[in-house]
Write a structure and sequence with these properties.
Distance between the termini of chain B: 42 Å
Shape of chain B: globular
Number of domains of chain A: 2
Oligomer: heterodimer
CATH superfamily of the largest domain in chain A: FAD/NAD(P)-binding domain
Bound molecules: flavin-adenine dinucleotide, FE2/S2 (inorganic) cluster
Structural class of chain B: alpha+beta
Order of helices and strands of chain A: EHEHEEHEEEEEHEHEHEEEEEEEEEEHH
Number of strands of chain B: 5
CATH class of the largest domain in chain A: Alpha Beta
Number of domains of chain B: 1
Distance between the termini of chain A: 28 Å
Largest sheet of chain A: 7 strands, mixed
Radius of gyration of chain B: 13 Å
Helix content of chain A: 10-25%
Strand content of chain A: 25-35%
Structural class of chain A: alpha/beta
Number of strands of chain A: 21
Largest interface: A-B, 29 and 20 residues
CATH topology of the largest domain in chain A: FAD/NAD(P)-binding domain
CATH architecture of chain B: Roll
CATH class of chain B: Alpha Beta
Shape of chain A: elongated
CATH superfamily of chain B: Beta-grasp domain
């Protein structure tokens, strides 16, 4: 069934800048819906450096990246933003009414008066191994995300990778799958020592297969994956039965579908003016790391400033007949929905 | 002849399109090799800005690997989780210019779209 949301402002990207845009829009009585391909909000901060301290957020001599995201969530809560997480925005269509229709990879639909692209460096996407037939088997045995764990029940699953998610999913799926094999290029794991210890234990008990100093070099099958080819550090090669191959090599941002929405781009960033961070398409704004203009700095604080100015213009699109005077939060407080 | 750290260090760089060029960098440059390469107009997205987290500066050391200082924990952790790393992989942001780079030959692999 089609999932449809109607809102004033649709924010694409739930990084720090997208989150703060909810606040600035909310002060002007505009409701927001946010979409992000990641299963969690926070963008680069939550995905790449959650535990690193940031030193250039005004008013915070030092703040951990994830803590900043938690604070932003608290700050915007009164404006009751809604979220579609784990879905990529694929398509943006301008309707005859002047509104926008936004469609995601899972066919969720959002209708909005204004679009704010706060897409950072682009969509976080899985890093893919270089294997000849990889694209052919995507969705036919090769999965980069584990959503429905039941499909692995009683099947042969090969996981590749050396990070926390490879370890954690190996442990989890060992209780579901017929056989789990973890293939890792080196002979140690630097992630969570707890999970690594458990994986070594399971392998010692013969409950999983752990292939260290080994690479997956090929995929074999007709309509669906049937086996993977392996190469070991000593030069020997082999193969194992595999109904599923799950490469877990982390995520990296790629511009993705944003490039196809008719926006003026410069080196993988969206060109905007510095009056209100509007793009060349009326009703679409771009703020944060995704935009570019003379003097642009990819800093969180710059994105916050851009969100404030963007909201002033977005207001006139959402409420064309209303007049508005500038108000301090100290004077009027924060009135949520 | 004694080597002083301010003497230029010569490197051979193969970019992502396969073009090979010899460059000379100051031996006492204060920035890491990723930043130095940027000043030679090599494209580096460097999402993490040089913290060894993103692997955009991933390179393959073709020649001279054994002269480099051992990678630190963060570099090893990042190299461990990317799909295309090999025993010749290093993150150029984790290498500070120094005499051990003299004559090194490397190939850029990480993301450049920027
Ligand atoms: C290691 C590191 C250290 C840093 N240190 C600092 C610092 O000290 N100070 C500072 O100011 N900045 C720092 N930065 C930069 C800072 O993280 C960015 O400026 C900030 O994250 C930009 O926020 P954003 O909301 O614009 O984008 P992001 O945080 O990149 O979030 C954008 C989100 O949009 C999503 N997205 C994109 N396209 C789509 C689509 N089509 N569909 C669905 N979702 C989509 C992405 O998945 C992502 O989650 C650092 C960055 C890194 C990586
Ligand atoms: S620049 Fe990110 S790892 Fe080197």
């Amino acid at each position: 069934m089609e999932n449809k949301v109607i809102t004033d402002v649709c924010i694409i990207g739930a990084g720090p800048v997208g989150l703060f845009a909810v606040f600035e829009a909310g002060l002007l009585k505009m409701r927001c819906h946010l979409i992000d391909v990641l299963p969690q909000v926070g963008g680069q901060l939550s995905e790449i450096y959650p535990q690193k301290p940031i030193y250039d957020i005004p008013g915070f001599p030092a703040i951990n990246a994830q803590e900043l995201i938690e604070n932003l969530k608290e700050q915007i809560a009164p404006f009751r933003p809604t979220f579609t997480l784990g879905e990529k925005v694929e398509e943006v269509i301008k309707l005859e009414t002047g509104e926008f229709l936004i469609r995601t990879s899972e066919n969720s639909i959002v209708e909005a008066r204004v679009i704010v692209i706060a897409g950072g460096l682009g969509c976080f996407e899985p890093r893919k191994p270089e294997l000849k037939n990889l694209a052919r088997f995507e969705g036919r045995g090769v999965n980069y995300f584990i959503r429905n764990t039941e499909i692995y029940r009683d099947r042969h699953v090969v996981i590749a990778g050396g990070g926390d998610s490879a370890l954690d999913w190996t442990l989890f799926l060992s209780g579901i799958a017929e056989r789990v094999t973890l293939v890792h290029r080196s002979d140690s794991f630097r992630g969570a020592p707890d999970s690594a210890g458990k994986v070594f234990d399971l392998a010692g008990e013969g409950k999983i297969d752990l292939l260290l100093r080994t690479n997956v070099t090929g995929l074999v099958g007709e309509d669906h994956l049937e086996a993977v080819r392996l190469e070991h550090a000593d030069g020997s090669a082999g193969g194992i039965k595999a109904d599923f191959f799950i490469p877990l090599f982390g995520l990296t941002p790629r511009l993705g579908p944003i490039a196809e929405w008719g926006l003026n781009l410069h080196h993988a960033a969206i060109e905007v003016n510095t009056f209100d961070y509007a793009t060349n398409v009326p009703g679409i704004f771009a703020i944060g790391d995704i935009n570019t203009y003379p003097g642009k700095l990819k800093l969180i604080l710059c994105g916050f400033h851009e969100a404030a100015l963007m909201a002033q213009s977005a207001f006139h699109i959402v409420y064309p007949d209303k007049k508005r005077t500038f108000k301090y939060t100290t004077v009027y407080g924060v009135h949520g929905f | 002849m004694a080597f002083t750290d301010s003497e230029p260090v010569r490197l051979t760089i193969k970019d992502r399109s396969g073009n090979v060029r010899n460059i000379e960098i100051p031996g006492d440059a204060e920035y890491n090799l990723m930043e130095v390469l940027k000043t030679f107009s090599y494209k580096m997205r460097a999402t993490c800005g040089g913290m060894g987290l993103c692997a955009d500066c991933h390179c393959k050391i073709v020649d001279g690997l054994d002269r480099l200082p051992e990678p630190g924990w963060q570099e090893l952790e990042t190299l461990d989780v990317i799909p295309d790393a090999t025993p010749r992989s290093r993150l150029s942001c984790q290498l500070m210019p120094g005499r051990y780079l003299q004559g090194i030959s490397l190939e850029l692999l990480g993301a450049d779209h920027y």
